[in-house]
Design a protein that fits this description.
- The structure is a single chain.
- The chain is 38% helix and 24% strand.
- It has 6 helices and 6 strands, in the order ααβββαααβββα.
- With 181 residues, the protein is of the alpha+beta class.
């Protein structure tokens, strides 16, 4: 028996390489630029890879991301108050989303448009498009032992969080490794 506990690290985090991190940083910058163009304001995105197991979020708007180049899917979870605040700000309001725990159909559609813009930007990075080919999907299951990427979103006065759950196969694909396991 060991005198200490080994932490549980997801397969996605264990597969994370310098090459995959670099591709992710380029995709993040391109997604932010694409979101800035559609939102008419500067959008900043910051990402942090989390090593541990993921747990479902209590209140989150969820979008599936099919990874057409792989037999896999990712999952994007966004705080509802972030989406509500963005829609409010884009409509000329103060950008208040306090208390929001679910989205209206209009807000859900706006989230899909914003996600499409972010995917369009991310796909401008050749390795993302070539090795993953991410496309927005109607629903997706949470990938097992995924790499959890916590996202901080700043769009003018609107701030919030999202999380991208990426399967280990996608992380390995960005590194050019085989898609086993």
């Amino acid at each position: 028996m060991l005198p200490f506990d080994l932490p549980a690290v997801s397969r996605g985090f264990a597969a994370l390489s310098a090459a995959a991190r670099a591709d992710g940083e380029r995709a993040l910058a391109a997604a932010a630029a694409s979101l800035s163009a559609i939102a008419g304001r500067e959008v900043r995105l910051r990402a942090r890879a989390c090593p541990g197991a993921t747990w479902p979020r209590a209140a989150a708007a969820r979008l599936g991301v099919e990874l057409c180049a792989l037999p896999a899917a990712a999952l994007l979870e966004v705080e509802p108050r972030l989406v509500v605040a963005l829609v409010d700000a884009l409509a000329g309001g103060p950008g208040d989303g306090a208390g929001a725990t679910a989205l209206t159909p209009v807000e859900a559609s706006a989230l899909e448009v914003l996600a499409l813009a972010a995917l369009d930007g991310a796909c401008s990075v050749a390795t993302i498009e070539d090795r993953l080919a991410p496309r927005l999907a109607r629903g997706a299951a949470e990938p097992g032992s995924a790499l959890a990427i916590e996202l901080d979103v700043d769009a003018g006065p609107v701030r919030g969080r999202a999380r991208l759950l990426v399967p280990a196969a996608a992380v390995r694909a960005l590194d050019g490794r085989e898609l086993s396991g």
